[in-house]
Write a structure and sequence with these properties.
The complex is a heterodimer.
Chain A: E1 4-7, E2 10-13, E3 19-25, E4 38-43, E5 50-54, E6 58-59, E7 67-72, E8 75-80, E9 89-95, E10 102-103, E11 107-111
Parallel strand pairs in A: 2-11
Antiparallel strand pairs in A: 1-3, 3-8, 4-5, 4-9, 5-6, 7-8, 9-10, 9-11
Chain B: E1 3-7, E2 10-12, E3 18-25, E4 34-39, E5 45-51, E6 58-60, E7 68-73, E8 78-83, E9 92-98, E10 108-112
Parallel strand pairs in B: 2-10
Antiparallel strand pairs in B: 1-3, 3-8, 4-5, 4-9, 5-6, 7-8, 9-10
The chains are: A mainly beta, B mainly beta.
């Protein structure tokens, strides 16, 4: 199975400051169709998860442009340029390239 | 508007069975792979099972193989998860999800306890 390793697992951030979450996969995530199915999921407290970014860097509708994804191969990053109160929650990277699809452990972002 | 509405969760004894349902609307259900993802209390997310558009391919995480069965009824726009031989470690909120993870249901809680 592909193991997804996130860091840090806890991320206290001051409002207005940037935040960055790293995700490393144990295998390359390029699918045979040429796409890399690496997504970022946000789960706010008490809510269902929500996809923010798909295929490494494509933002979902309604996701602010201060949130961005990047990376390639086995190393991926989610960046928030200026953290706002609504960003509090747990962030997961997840690969959909190889079955079983696997999630990272989650990174809890809180306001310092 | 895409909607995924789960039902069927509840309290069940170890070794028991439960069938979850998911009613889908707002998109062409028969054109999409569908999935079940679960989250144990206070824990992270775990992908449980996938099913192809026509039901001809199914995939399961090892921990549920032989116990859970994913199925669908495209005429009813519905996804199902039949869960047998339930264990305490199956206690979780179960989410119905499009395989691309772009839409999630609100989840249904399954508690396995005596």
């Amino acid at each position: 199975d592909v193991v997804m390793t996130q860091s840090p697992l806890s991320l206290p951030v001051t409002l207005g400051q940037p935040a960055s979450i790293s995700c490393r996969s144990s295998q390359r995530l390029v699918h045979r169709d040429g796409n890399t199915y690496l997504n970022w999921i946000q789960q706010r407290p008490g809510q269902s998860p929500r996809r923010l970014v798909y295929e490494i860097s494509k933002r979902d509708s309604g996701v602010p442009d201060r949130i961005s994804g990047s990376g390639s191969g086995t190393d991926f990053t989610l960046k928030i340029s200026r953290v706002e109160a609504e960003d509090v929650g747990v962030y997961y990277c997840v690969q959909g390239t190889q079955w079983p699809h696997t999630f990272g452990q989650g990174t809890k972002l809180e306001i310092k | 508007e895409v909607q995924l509405v789960e039902s069927g969760g509840g309290l069940v004894q170890p070794g028991g069975s439960l069938r979850l349902s998911c009613a889908a609307s707002g998109f062409s259900f028969s054109d999409r792979w569908m999935s079940w993802v679960r989250q144990a209390p206070g824990k992270g997310l775990e992908w449980v099972a996938n099913i192809k558009e026509d039901g001809s391919e199914k995939y399961y995480v090892d921990s549920v193989k032989g116990r859970f069965t994913i199925s669908r009824d495209n005429a009813k726009n519905s996804l199902y998860l039949q869960m047998n031989s339930l264990r305490a470690e199956d206690t979780a909120v179960y989410y119905c999800v499009r395989v691309d993870l772009d839409y999630w249901g609100q989840g249904t809680l399954v508690t396995v306890s005596s």
